[in-house]
Amino acid sequence: QVQLVESGGGLVQPGGSLRLSCAASLLTFRVYDLGWFRQAPGKEREFVAAITWAGNDTSYATSVEGRFTISRDNAKNTMYLQMSSLKPEDTAVYYCAPANVKAGTAKFDHWGQGTQVTVSS
Questions:
Q1: Are β-strands 78-83 and 92-100 bridged in parallel, bridged antiparallel, or unpaired?
Q2: From CA 77, how far away is CA 64, in angstroms rounded?
Q3: Mean pLDDT score across all residues of the chain
Q4: What is the DSSP string of the chain?
């Protein structure tokens, strides 16, 4: 069973930074490539970034490349999304999930509760 829990969201001013965390069960973390996705109000869920299980390859959506950095700590079974230079259009609920790194898609249509990120002055 895939088990992932997102945390770290909050309210931040434009230009600010935030780090999201995704805690996973051992099995989930060691078996799957993982990614971050987000859904803004009234919009479809979209790909943000993904990383292989070994951490040796990543991919990013064009809209966040150069501003966001995805990483993972295998010793802690935790994945991170460091977000910098945040913009109001980054406002969304952020989800982590098993992902196809090259395709930028989710492996399954199964989502946790997510963590809300609001970028506003």
A1: unpaired
A2: 24
A3: 94
A4: ---EEEE--EEE-TT--EEEEEEE-HHHHHH--EEEEEE-TTS--EEEEEE-TTSS-EEE-TTTBTTEEEEEETTTTEEEEEE-S--GGG-EEEEEEEEETTTTEESSS-----EEEEE--
The distance of Cα 108 from the centroid of its chain, to the nearest Å, equals 15
Give the closest residue to 98 by CA, choosing from 82, 79, 117.
Answer: 79
Q: 56: phi > 0 → left, psi -120 to 50 → alpha, else beta; which?
A: alpha
pLDDT digits (tens, 9 = 90+) for 22-74: 998 878 878 899 999 999 999 999 999 999 988 899 999 999 999 999 999 98
